[in-house]
Write a structure and sequence with these properties.
Blueprint lengths: L3 H30 L3 H4 L1 H20 L5 H21 L3 H28 L6 H29 L2 H22 L11 H7 L3 H21 L2 H9 L6 H23 L3 H22 L3 H16 L2 H11 L5 H27 L6 H27 L21
Helix pairs in contact: 1-3, 1-5, 1-6, 1-7, 3-5, 3-15, 4-5, 4-7, 5-6, 5-15, 6-7, 6-11, 6-14, 9-12, 9-13, 9-14, 9-15, 9-16, 11-13, 11-14, 12-13, 12-16, 15-16
Amino acid sequence: MPLALLALAIGAFGIGTTEFVIMGLLPEVAGDFGVSIPTAGYLVTGYALGVMLGAPLMTVLGTRISRKRMLMLLMGLFIAGNLLSALAPSFGLMLTGRVVASLAHGAFFGIGSVVAADLVAPDKKAGAIALMFTGLTVANVVGVPLGTLVGQSIGWRVTFGIVAALGVVGLAGIARLVPDMPKAEGVRLRHELAALKNVQILLAMAMTVLGFGGVFAAITYIAPMMTHVAGFADGSVTWLLVLFGLGMVGGNLIGGRYADRALMPMLYLSLGALAVVLALFTLTAHNKIAAAVTIALIGALGFATVPPLQKRVLDQAHGAPTLASALNIGAFNLGNALSAWLGGLVIGAGLGYTAPNWVGAVLAASALVLAFVSAALERRDTPPGTVLAGPVPTERRTAVPH
C-alpha cells in the first residue's frame, strides 16, 4: 500500500478523535462556560449537522481544484476549527469552532476515499479505503480515551490543542506523500450531480443510513444500558467503548479485505449478522460478559459494512464519484441522528433501556432488504452472459510512484 494512505489515515485519526472526544468532556466544558449539560450537548449536535451540510457544500466548492489541494484545504479548515475551540472565550465561539471543524469531515472522507481508491490496483480499492478509515476506527480505541483523560486531568482546551496539532501532521503528510492527482478531464459539477440519479447510488446511501443507524441506535444509549441493566460501574463505560472501537478496527479491515473479492455477499453477511446480534443484545445486555462480547461484535459487524458501501458508491459513480462519495459520508451521520432519535423515543415510551436494540435490529434488517433489492435490480439491468463486477473506470489511470 502507498505511504500516501498513511497520511490520509492520520487525517482520519484526527477527525475521528475530535468528533467523539467531546462526549467525554461535556461536564468540563459545561462547567467552564457556565452552561447546562443539555446546552453543552449542542457541541455534539452542531458537529453532526455540520458534517451533513459540509459534505456536499465543500465538495461542490472544490470541484475546480485538484483533489490533493482540496484535501489540504480541508485539513487547514479542520486545524482552524479545533484551534478556535481550544481558545474560545465563550460557548458561542466554542460551538462555532466545532461547526468549522465539522465542515471538513464529510468532504475529507469522501474525497479521501476517491484518492485512496485511485492509488491502488482495481482489485485492492476497498482495502485501500478501509486503510484510510482505520484512522477513524483507531481514534475510538486510542484518541478518544486518551483525549478524554487529558481533558479531565489537564484541561479540555489542551485536548483540542493536541487535536489541532494532529491536523498539522496530517496536512504535512498529505502535502508530502499524496501525489497530485487531477480530476478526469471533462468532469464538471453537472456530471457529479448527474451521478446522483443512479438508483444504485441512492440505494447504497440508504443502506448506509439504515445499516450504521442500527449500530448507533444501541451505542448511543450504551451508558445507561450497561450501568442500569448489565450492572457495570459508571467508570467501566469507557472500557466498553474501547471494546466497541476494537471491534470497529477489526470489522473495517475485514470488510475491506473481502469487499474486493465479493462485495455484495460481504454486505449480506455483515448486515444480516448485525441485525441478529442487535436483536440478541436485548438478552445479552443482562450479563456483563455477554454484553461486552456483543458490544465488540456490533462494532465489528457495523464497520464491516463501511468499505463495501463506500466502494459500491465509487463503482456506480465512476468518472464523477467525488460528490456521491462525500454524500455517503453524510449519510452515516444522518443514520446516527435518526437512530439516536428513534432510540430516545422508545426509551421515552417506557420500553426500557434495551428497547433501542430492537430499533437497531429493524434498521439493519431493512438495510439487508435494500441490499437484496439492489442486487436484483443490477441482475435485471445486466445483459445475459455479462459478469457482474465493479464498473470499469472511464478515467485514465497512470502509475503512481511510491
